[in-house]
Amino acid sequence: MTRYVLRRLGRGLLTIFVSVTLVFFIVRAMPSDPVSLMISPQMSKAAQEQLMHTYGLDQPLLTQYVLYMKELLIGNMGISFAKRIPVTELIASRLPYTLVLLAVVMLIVCAIGIPLGVYAATHKGKLADRIISVLVTVGISIFIPFMAFLLLYIFAFRLKVLPTGGAYTPPMKEGMAFVADVARHIVLPALALAITNFANAVLYTRNSMIDVMHEDYIRTARAKGADEKRVVHKHALNNALIPTVTVIGMQIGIMVGGATVTETVFSWPGIGRLIYDSVNALDYPTLQGTFLVMAVAVVIMSFIVDLVVARLDPRIKLGD
Amino acid sequence: MANVVEFKNYSMGFRDDDGAVSNLLDGISFSIEEGKALGVVGESGCGKSMTSLSLMRLLPDAAVVQGGEILFEGKDVLKLSDKEMQTIRGDRLSMIFQEPMTALNPVITIGSQIGECLVLHHPELSKEEVRSRVIDALDSVGISNPERRLDQYPHEFSGGMRQRVMIAMAIINHPALLIADEPTTALDVTIQAQILDIMKRLKGESGSLLMITHNLGIVAEVCEEVVVMYAGRAIERGTLAAIFDNPMHPYTRGLMASIPTMHSDKGPLPTIPGTVPTVYDFKPGCRFADRCPHCKDICTREAPQYRWVGDDHIVACWLYEGEGDGNA
Q: B71 - beta bridge partners?
């Protein structure tokens, strides 16, 4: 087990290293120049050079890369070009919002999506299953920004029951009032973000349940005298969840940074919104930082998924 | 002696996607006395497994019961509610399946899969009692080191060992009838012999046995009575001696002739020409008519009735019209 964890850690670090390197060069390959955005032409030549020097932009590309990696090793992600504060601070202030949003999305996906998939599978071919299947297809194929605007139009503009954007209404409140305020703001972005994942979870659970219900060991369970409830919950669900968990888990990792569109539409102050702002401002250090967070999230989630799947399926040995 | 199970003129078939029903089992009748073993033999697809699944009420979704009765301990299982059926299954009536590799749940330990039979039917047993009875059951089917093995998962067992686990599961509640559906078909020959030994030993200890197989050797070794099935009909039934020493139906005779013996000539073994018709191309009349060397005019028009041709021997064939007692 220790050997497995060490090997996984090594592979994870390698993945992160490769992704950081790629992002470093890709960001600099963008067809624009941050210097011209950051430095106004009115500045004196000396002041311009001083600023270039401060951000290391006067160095050759490879030297910049070595410097960046060195600083990264001691936990320094650099200073944001746009906000002029350390990137670590910037990300630390945004990450909680993304995580809260993800937690709500995952709650919807797991607590409603999986049971709904099981229900559809056990009522295969009946009216309820057909309705669910149609809705799932719509959910998977819907264009998320369209969904986001539709939600905004209905709930924020027409019904005026939910706020249009942001994570809270300023001024920031204290204690439970703040929690309640954030909860009101999170509903629409969470719904918009959940819809595709939710539909995927229902679809995967349903299809995998239907496959499992045809297995020989389900017949064995019935032959023992188990009732339908026990057959579904004790014998089928564990087996059916193995592929579903893998898919949902990997989605969470990607969503840490992948909620850019939704977070932007709802002005949700998370990592996705930060990526959008950083691209607009050509803020290299912040972009690199956010992509690093994404890479770490994907590595961590795939590790967690492996642990959960190994727990569900005794045929998978983590040792070797 | 009382019959444990009795099939009375039982028929079933399948509904296809368009709703049309085609008949497979046609008027199956046989019974098993307490403590006796009955073998059902026939080729693949002749309805042997559907016969046993009908008794268990575990038929696939597309199956349709078309008539008749299946009495188990005096009650018609076709009329029982799902709940009543669940109390019988795994307790009074249990079944061993053909495929030991897939018949066990891969994510549950052997111990709790076997123990489940006890937990379901005897909720009053304590955890320790369940555990010790599971150990006894594993021991009785020849699994060494049961205390350690019961915490293992199916993938840690070989095919033969898994079949032993299936047997342990089926016999733990001492059922009145044990159905074994091709219990050795998926195993290699040495393991087959071991499993058969276990089955023979168990037969002495427990209730009745319904052995479904296409292997006449197994029937000869384990069973007292035989039903020969062909294309969904029970074409001949009788005691082991009657069927093996004096086969009447041309199909049974063909089967017997195709078994190699110590005295066989060096020439090729006799075979039955043609193949078994599928459920979609059954014709009126005897379903064996196409392949029968003695086929008469009437065989292709009308299905033959059952006829007593001996004290303990029934056959459905037009060759014996006029012999015996007529309709049995």
A: B6, B76
Are residues B116 and A226, on separate chains, in Cβ contact within 8 Å? yes
Nearest residue on chain A to B156, alpha-carbon basis: A315
Q: Which helix (H) or strand (E) holds B193?
A: helix B189-205
Q: CA-based angle A110:A112:A117, to the nearest 5?
A: 90
Query: For chain A, which residues make up each domain, given as ranges?
Result: 2-73, 89-312
Rounded to the nearest 5°, which phi and psi values hold at B313? -150, 120
Q: Does B86 touch chain A (CB under 8 A)?
A: yes
- Structure-model confidence comparison of residues B260 and B86, the more confident one: B86
Q: CB distance A225–B88 less than 8 Å?
A: yes
Collapsing DSSP to helix, strand or coil, A40 comes out as coil
Residue A156 to residue B247: CA distance in whole angstroms: 85
The reply to whether ipTM tops 0.85 is yes
B106–A313 CB contact, under 8 Å: yes
In chain B, residues with a C-beta closer than 8 Å to the C-beta of A315 are 106, 153, 155
| Cβ-defined contact of A238 to B102 (cutoff 8 Å) | no
* Statement: residue B147 has pLDDT above 80: yes
The pLDDT value recorded for residue B41 is 92
Any CB–CB contact under 8 A between B92 and chain A? Answer: no
A192 three-state secondary structure: helix
A222 with B89: Cβ contact below 8 A: yes
Does the pLDDT of residue A132 top 90, yes or no?
yes
Asked if the C-beta of B50 comes within 8 angstroms of chain A's C-beta atoms, the answer is: no
Contact: A223, B87; criterion CB under 8 Å? no
Check if the beta carbon of residue A121 is closer than 8 Å to that of residue A206: yes
pLDDT at B140: 86
Query: Looking at residues A138-160, what average pLDDT do you find?
Result: 89
Are A268 and A166 spatial neighbours (Cβ–Cβ below 8 Å)?
yes
Sheet holding B75-76, edge to edge: B21-33, B3-15, B63-72, B75-76
- Three-state DSSP at B19 gives coil
Do B86 and A215 count as a contact with CB atoms less than 8 A apart?
no
From residue A146, how far is each of A153, A192, A193, A254, A262 by CA, in Å?
10, 9, 12, 21, 10
Give the mutation candidate from A213, A216, A219, A224 for the B interface (greatest B CB count, under 10 A). Answer: A224
Q: Which residues pair with B314 in a beta bridge?
A: B237, B308
Give the residue extent of every domain in chain B. Answer: 3-92+173-320, 93-172
CATH number of B3-92+173-320: 3.40.50.300
The C-alpha atoms of residue B303 and residue B289 are separated, in whole angstroms, by 10
CATH superfamily of the domain spanning A89-312: MetI-like (1.10.3720.10)
Q: Which residue in the set A223, A235, A238 is minimally distant from B90, CB to CB?
A: A223
Residues of A in contact with B176 (CB under 8 A): none
Q: How many angstroms separate the first and last alpha carbons of chain B?
A: 20
**CB of B318 within 8 Å of any CB in chain A?**
no
